Amino acid sequence: MVSADAGNIVQFDNVGLRYGSGVETLSDLNFSLAAGAFYFLTGPSGAGKSSLLRLIYLAQRPSRGVIRMFGEDVVTLPRQRMPGFRRRIGVVFQDFRLVPHLSAYENIALPLRVNGVAEADIDQPVREMLEWVGLSGRANAKPPTLSGGEQQRVAIARAVIGRPEILVADEPTGNVDPEMAERLLYLFEALNKLGTTILVATHDLHLVPRVPSAQLMRLDKGHIADPTGMLRYPPRRG
Ligand SMILES: Nc1ncnc2c1ncn2[C@@H]1O[C@H](COP(=O)(O)OP(=O)(O)OP(=O)(O)O)[C@@H](O)[C@H]1O
Q1: Same domain as 169, residue 150
Q2: Which subcellular locations apply to this protein (predicted)?
Q3: Domain that holds residue 23
Q4: Whose alpha carbon is nearest atom 26 of ligand 1?
């Protein structure tokens, strides 16, 4: 039997998030993200974009509701299964979050080392990633000596070297110039064409038309505005 969420990589049912005892930061979120699609998440400052992304990359549990990732309920997921789920989700941050005393090469290799990949199987994928993001010549450079755009490309390479099924990026172009922002989007688009689901939170609405296939999710005061109904499940077929 085909379940209602077939084809969805993320599904939120009546999800709410409250920090402390205040009002809910996110309320009544009901949406799904289709595997292989490209989404922009926009909304004013404080709307809850980063909070929503944290729920998706499993850094935060909701206060209520059900979140399914890859078809499984992650709210009740046993703790020991979390690392396995996290490996399927790549994350890119506005402030890069690279390890400053490690070279670009070592930063990109880090997820493989953490996951216990044999040393002999590390060099080739890291070199391929460096080439893909156009930084083969900067392999030995440490993050403080790299430009913002270069650091973000290292961060993207690190996020995708483990071949995640979904890549979540929180304002990834916020600290780079417009030309570099375009270049980063091009990388996200290329990944998407290879089948990776992409979710990019951004203030910058200029980026949206740059990806003609992308769908727009707008968050306002903790609610998702979905005027076209595109985000509802079951996903549209054909
Ligand atoms: N860890 C936290 N503890 C308490 N409140 C929080 C926490 N994280 C976020 N908030 C609050 O939740 C609301 C939404 O914040 P969030 O960072 O998710 O919004 P955002 O849309 O990403 O904003 P911005 O675009 O400015 O980054 C804000 O009012 C913020 O102060």
Answers
A1: no
A2: Cell inner membrane; Cell membrane
A3: 1-88+165-177+189-238
A4: 45
